[in-house]
Amino acid sequence: MGNIEIITKMISLIEKIEAYITNLDYESFSNDQMIVEACAFNFSQLGELSHKLEEDFQRKNPQIPWKAIYGMRNRIIHDYDGVNLSVIWETITEDLPSLVTQLKEII
């Protein structure tokens, strides 16, 4: 799988996460286990994909927080019960909109 294909899949995952939380506030999000798990799963997939990008490609796109994306995956995979939902919510609402824009600019 090439870098552009990976970025395209990452964009798709972000758009899924954004669709899951449409019209939700934090309380509704945190009380809906299915939505939380769907978002967590897509975050883990997002991190996994970011790790498959060529190092040179990542270096050429330093505006993307590659290590943070993979770090979120690690937190979810290795400590799901300890994941802070407010951090996930904040990431979804504050970081993903700009990240998807940056990823779209790459392709």
Explain the layout of strands and helices.
Elements: H1 3-20, H2 26-30, H3 33-51, H4 55-60, H5 66-78, H6 85-106
* Biggest beta-sheet profile: none
User: How much beta, percentage-wise?
Assistant: under 5%
Coarse shape? globular
Helix/strand class:
mainly alpha
| Ends apart, CA distance between termini | 15 Å
- Evaluate the radius of gyration: 14 Å
Which percent bin holds the helix content?
over 70%
Mean pLDDT: 92
Order of helices and strands: HHHHHH
Number of strands: 0
Low-pLDDT residue spans: none
> How many distinct helices?
6
Brief account:
This protein has helices at 3-20, 26-30, 33-51, 55-60, 66-78, 85-106. The protein has 107 residues and is mostly helical.
